[in-house]
Design brief:
By secondary structure, the chain is an alpha/beta fold. It is 38% helix and 14% strand. The N and C termini lie far apart (58 Å). Bound molecules: flavin-adenine dinucleotide.
């Protein structure tokens, strides 16, 4: 088909707004808010400008948008070395220990700030029982920052597992965003800038420097509310645009379309942005498959950890016990302390053996807790305590995954009275939860045992000059979660300002012509307007996905095609996460055709334009993922994915990082193995 270009003959030309800043923060989630808060402190006294751009409203954007009930990474009285070992075990032995250790030594400070800013953190009461955040305040329990030692803090916080602390977190993101917005506002006034916080602006592409090779100079994005395109120029940029969902076909389709574990707005922009700039990636073969309450994707962690609830198969057996030996036999050395993927694996063995469904025994866990309370406190007080705990359990869903509460109500399930079904979800790409797919970044350089080549000057800078990474897009260092992503953003904030100050002579010059970039961005509009009368159906409204045309493809259909390819060829739910060389090669052929068809994506309105670009981003994230799995000839993450042609873990040949780089000029990929170094015994 003839290649289309946008000459604005059919669609309206947008207003183009150019904005120059010193430090540009892309994203408005946990890492971006951390970066804004920290960077402004260093930038403002030096007269440097900081700008944040978020595709949504920062108060409720990103993976924490709906709130959380636990902060998953808090060291307290634990040893940072133990945190490194826990992350290493969970991620099957291969992590960047320098990055993880560095995170561990900084993360608590972010948690203390959250509490100071108003986030209620649970504390232990004088009777040894937990007080929720409000009760702790009424009981005049001190703030964590005001406690003298980590050991004393450890005695006071309420842990749900070794690393988690319980919070009343419905407004968590609003609180974190407020601090970032205040810092930005202070910076804006001090530097005399009109605007430095852009919301509902969707970043589509990086722009490289015209004169300095391998240096980023800016980014382009589009308003999702107005007919405006934004072109940003900066001396340093943070990519904090999160991970990728809806790359694989979700379990909930049709009736449940839009339900997923990972919020649907995390569309792979972070991966696309960095790879199009030429940044090196690592462990993109990794993915996250959470075992969650079926259909509602509600969180199971707190029930597992806090209420000590068990997940049993239909025979009443614990798959981890029943199949623990099989895991050690098939994956020697990995069965004793099973990582998240292997815990999925045992449930999958059980389900494949016809022993499903797996159900979490929430009701017996609650009964056992209630019994313990009554024994300690007497019938009346014990019952009261249990009621309060039940309310907390409900809050767990209401503040995090309200859809789960709705699902249970709609299907007549009372989880405190009967077991609730669990299922492994479709795969997601991310690097801050129990996954580690992302970019290869510089470490801090001061941690003993780290190879010298793991640090190239500025902490968390990518292999592209001026381009920093934080949160979900950083590879080989998962289990940062919300607090760690914020802390990592702060690390970047400080280092990016140092980078700018060290390179004050640099002036960004954009490599691409703005007109050409704008035309590329608006092409889906032009295509739609040009061909909208050729559609086969006059019965549906213009933006209805059922409108089929020989000249274009709507984003909804395009996304479904992508999800189907990934599902069937790259190990989604259709094949129980199984793939192979031949399957991936076939899938890559289909992805190539899909990418070609991307030139015919059509948008009837600004929302569909956003959806078109989300698809471009997803497709590239998907292809990188597929190519990485193809390169690594083993099954490193059983329970996340399986290479049927290499079903074992092969430590002799593959206990290494797999790094890749996409060359946008030549449209080629380079892959290499990078030695893994264990720094902590
Ligand atoms: C379902 C779920 C449950 C979780 N539960 C917990 C928990 O209980 N405890 C805990 O500590 N952590 C939890 N986490 C982890 C935590 O949410 C993440 O680690 C953290 O949010 C990652 O931070 P981030 O900045 O990388 O991404 P996010 O916080 O997701 O932010 C990404 C940002 O990028 C913006 N963006 C995306 N694309 C673009 C674009 N093209 N242009 C402009 N902006 C863009 C988004 O609007 C958003 O502001 C959970 C995560 C998920 C998904």
């Amino acid at each position: 088909m003839e290649k289309e270009t946008c000459t604005f003959s059919y669609c309206e030309r947008p207003e183009v707004i150019e904005h120059e800043t010193d430090f540009l923060i892309l994203g408005g989630g946990m890492s971006a808010c951390g970066a804004a808060f920290e960077a402004c402190q260093w930038a403002t006294p030096k007269g440097l400008r900081v700008t944040m751009v978020d595709k949504a409203a920062t108060d409720r954007s990103g993976a924490v948008a709906q709130g959380l009930s636990a902060i998953n990474t808090y060291m307290g009285g634990n040893k940072i070395e133990d945190y490194v070992k826990y992350v290493r075990t969970d991620l099957m032995g291969i992590i960047r220990e320098d990055l993880v250790f560095d995170l561990g030594r900084h993360v608590d400070n972010s948690v203390h700030l959250f509490e100071e800013w108003g986030l209620p953190i649970w504390k232990k009461g004088d009777d040894g029982f937990s007080l929720d955040g409000l009760q702790a305040k009424d009981a005049e329990k001190p703030l964590l920052k005001d406690i003298a030692s980590n050991e004393e803090r450890e005695k006071l916080v309420v842990r749900s597992g070794k690393w988690q602390v319980m919070i009343n977190g419905e407004s968590y993101k609003v609180i974190v965003a407020e601090a970032a917005k205040k810092a930005l506002e202070h910076n804006r006034k001090a530097t005399g800038v009109d605007q430095n916080h852009f919301e509902r602006v969707f970043i589509t592409k990086p722009i490289m420097d015209a004169n300095v090779p391998n240096r980023i100079a800016g980014a382009i994005g589009v308003s999702v509310r107005e007919n405006k395109v934004y072109v940003f120029k900066a001396k340093a940029i943070l990519n904090g645009m999160g991970g990728a969902v809806n790359v694989f076909r979700p379990r909930s389709i049709g009736e449940g379309m839009g339900r997923a574990w990972f919020p649907v707005w995390n569309s792979g922009s972070g991966y696309y942005f960095g790879m199009q700039a030429g940044a090196e990636m690592t462990l993109m073969e990794n993915r996250f498959v959470p075992m969650r309450f079926k259909d509602g994707y509600g969180p199971v962690g707190a029930w597992f950890l806090f209420f000590k609830a068990k997940a049993l198969n239909a025979m009443g057996e614990d798959p981890a016990v029943k199949y623990g030996d099989a895991v050690e036999r098939d994956y020697p050395g990995y069965g004793k302390a099973m990582g998240t993927c292997l815990r999925n694996h045992v449930s999958m063995i059980s389900m494949r053996a016809g022993e499903g469904p797996i159900k979490m025994q929430t009701h017996t866990a609650m009964q056992a807790m209630g019994k313990g309370f009554k024994e300690k406190l007497g019938d009346k007080e014990g019952a009261k305590k249990l009621k309060h705990l039940e309310a907390e359990a409900w809050e767990d869903f209401l503040d995090m995954t309200i859809a789960q509460a709705g699902m249970w109500a709609a299907s007549d399930i009372e989880p405190d009275r009967e077991p609730s079904e669990l299922i492994p979800s479709e795969p997601y790409l991310l690097g801050s939860h129990a996954g580690c797919a992302g970019f290869w970044v510089s470490g801090p350089g001061d941690i003993k045992g780290a190879p010298a080549e793991w640090s190239w000057g500025y902490n968390r800078i990518s292999t592209v000059q001026g381009l920093f990474m934080a949160g979900d897009v950083v590879g080989a260092s998962g289990h940062k979660f919300s607090s760690g992503s914020h802390a990592e953003g702060r690390i970047v904030g400080k280092n990016a300002i140092a980078f700018i100050l060290d390179n004050m002579g640099y002036k960004p010059v954009l490599k691409n012509k703005i007109d050409a970039l704008v035309a590329e961005l608006y092409l889906p509009f032009e295509i739609y307007e040009k061909y909208k009368t050729y559609t086969t159906s006059g019965t549906f409204p213009p933006n209805d996905p059922r409108n089929v045309s020989p000249h274009y493809i709507k984003p909804d259909m395009y996304q479904k095609r992508l999800m189907k390819i990934m599902d069937e060829y790259v190990g989604g739910i259709a094949t129980w996460y199984v793939t192979s060389k031949t399957l991936i090669e076939e899938g890559l052929k289909k992805l190539a055709v899909l990418e070609e068809d991307g030139a015919r994506l059509a948008a009837a309105n600004l929302h569909e334009l956003l959806r078109c670009w989300e698809n471009y981003h997803r497709v590239w994230a998907a292809e990188t993922h597929a190519r990485h799995i193809l390169f690594r000839q083993e099954s490193r993450y059983p329970g996340y994915y399986y290479r049927a042609d290499f079903p074992k873990i092969d430590d002799t040949n593959w206990k290494c990082f797999v790094n890749s780089r996409y060359n946008v000029e030549t449209n080629t990929w380079e892959f290499k193995k990078v030695p893994y170094v264990q720094m902590f015994p």
